[in-house]
Design brief:
Blueprint (H helix, E strand, L loop, with lengths): L11 H18 L14 E6 L5 H12 L3 E6 L11 H10 L4 E6 L4 H8 L6 E7 L5 H15 L6 E5 L6 H12 L3 E5 L14 E4 L2 H4 L5 E4 L15 H8 L3 H4 L7 E3 L12 H4 L6 H20 L7
Parallel strand pairs: 1-2, 1-3, 3-4, 5-6, 5-8, 6-7, 8-9
Amino acid sequence: MKHLLATDGLDPAFATAVLDTAEELKHTLLGREVRKLPTLRGRTVITLFYENSTRTRVSFEIAGKWMSADVINVSASSSSVNKGESLRDTALTLAAAGADCVIIRHPASGAAQRLSGWLAEAGTAVVNAGDGTHEHPTQALLDAATLRERLGSFEGRRIGIVGDVLHSRVARSNIHLLSALGAEVVLVAPPTLLPAGVESLPVTVSHELDAELPALDAVMMLRVQAERMHGGFFPSAREYSIAYGLNERRMKLLPEHAVVLHPGPMLRGMEIASAVADSPASAITEQVRNGVHVRMAVLYHLLASEGAAA
């Protein structure tokens, strides 16, 4: 596989191979004083971010460096983009400079797909680190890795995704990946925060969080993306929290084995109570930790495994 652009249509066998590799890498590095592998020595990985990021950008950088790649961060705000350079010209410049892989985050849906087309001749791999409201495939993979670690398997598991589904690329990627791996996905949100055509997705839809919680094996709380909202999607932050926030009372409705996830950054007190975010059921810190190993695995399969382009 040359690129990782989406989970929609992603081969479940490839996804499982990435999860297996991530698990192996995690065990390989466990307890090491120097967390460094020679796997990608001589490779150049460039992160190209047109939107702000902490977890994704840092974990990709750590992943590349732990595998001995040369990692270069390019921020749109401090690059020639500010002088009017197009995405295409920026991409071709990075490829000409020797990039083996470009990891892109962009506000426009489809940007990663376009980039992969422009870089096809150069043989540069492209990883989608989030494009508009479209997809965020490595986030879904790290979420799957965390769920597999906590629950053991996906088959027959019921996973709730709660909140701002409409603007969430994380939700879209998780819907496709978790369904493909055998889980049942339940979307819980107000009607105004569900995308058009949701009935065509492999999901169950609900508007009542309390009614769904007792039957969930995991619940993924989504950030309310106010920066993408133009108009009123719910009456107020308080009303949203009352209807869809995961508080201590609601936490007690979940089964004892249930896992709580959040892709971050969290709006504590609105989407999720601090007592829940910091509880033993919460795997939020584990998601970040697993994100490094999953992104190491993605880079390995794109750049170093048998069949990866030279």
